[in-house]
């Protein structure tokens, strides 16, 4: 069974911050990118694979194929960093049986319906509902951009979103 070191939602997927900071922080030797669009785009997937750090295995799977791979034990004993592009995709994976105990939210992108939680982190009400559902089922959820940044609990983030939407 794989050793899941970090499951992170970051709309940029495998970018410099993930490769230079988080990969080292959690001592992972494999990255699984879970994203339906990227898995379907062979050219872009190849670009991601070419950009992988030396000595690190990278796999790209759709949500359904990632869940099936974990259920079949495809990833062996890898020390894994798992990246999802959105809260929606990690929630779908979780609902399909993806083994999720802890979830870290990083870059979620900006939008007119999003509330800024910190300088670089934002959430909207739809994301909050999905995250609260997972938290209610035992998933520990935090927000953190880089290892140097303070950890924000989901409860604190939800308070900020809900206070802002009352205004």
List keywords for this structure.
9 strands; alpha/beta; 167 residues; Fructose Permease; two-stranded antiparallel ribbon; single chain; globular
Our estimate of the beta-strand percent is 15-25%
Helices and strands: which structural class?
A: alpha/beta
CATH superfamily caption: Phosphotransferase system, sorbose subfamily IIB component
Instruction: Specify the number of helices.
Output: 7
Write down how many β-strands occur, each being a DSSP E stretch of 2 or more residues: 9
CATH architecture: 3-Layer(aba) Sandwich
Secondary-structure element order, as H and E? EHEHHEHEHEEEHEEH
Largest beta sheet, briefly?
Answer: 7 strands, mixed
General shape: globular
At the fold tier of CATH, the topology name is Fructose Permease
Low-confidence residue ranges: none
Helix-strand layout with pairing:
Layout: E1 3-9, H1 16-26, E2 30-34, H2 36-40, H3 42-50, E3 57-61, H4 63-72, E4 79-84, H5 87-95, E5 102-105, E6 115-116, E7 122-123, H6 125-136, E8 140-143, E9 152-153, H7 154-166
Parallel strand pairs: 1-4, 1-5, 2-3, 2-4, 5-8
Antiparallel strand pairs: 6-7, 8-9
Helix pairs in contact: 4-5, 5-6, 6-7
């Amino acid at each position: 069974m794989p050793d899941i070191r970090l499951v992170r939602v970051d709309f940029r997927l495998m970018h410099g911050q993930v490769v230079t900071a988080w990969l080292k922080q959690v001592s992972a030797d494999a990255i699984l990118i879970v994203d339906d669009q990227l898995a379907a785009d062979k050219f872009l997937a190849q670009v991601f694979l070419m950009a992988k750090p030396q000595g690190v295995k990278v796999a790209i799977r759709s949500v359904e194929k990632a869940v099936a791979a974990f259920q079949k034990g495809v990833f062996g004993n890898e020390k894994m960093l798992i990246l999802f592009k959105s809260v929606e995709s990690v929630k779908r994976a979780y609902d399909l049986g993806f083994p999720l105990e802890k979830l870290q939210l990083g870059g979620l992108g900006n939008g007119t319906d999003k509330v800024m939680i910190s300088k670089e982190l934002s959430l909207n009400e739809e994301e909050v509902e999905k995250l609260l559902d997972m938290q209610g089922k035992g998933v520990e959820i935090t927000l953190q951009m880089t290892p140097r940044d303070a950890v924000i609990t989901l409860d604190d983030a939800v308070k900020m979103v809900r206070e802002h939407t009352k205004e």
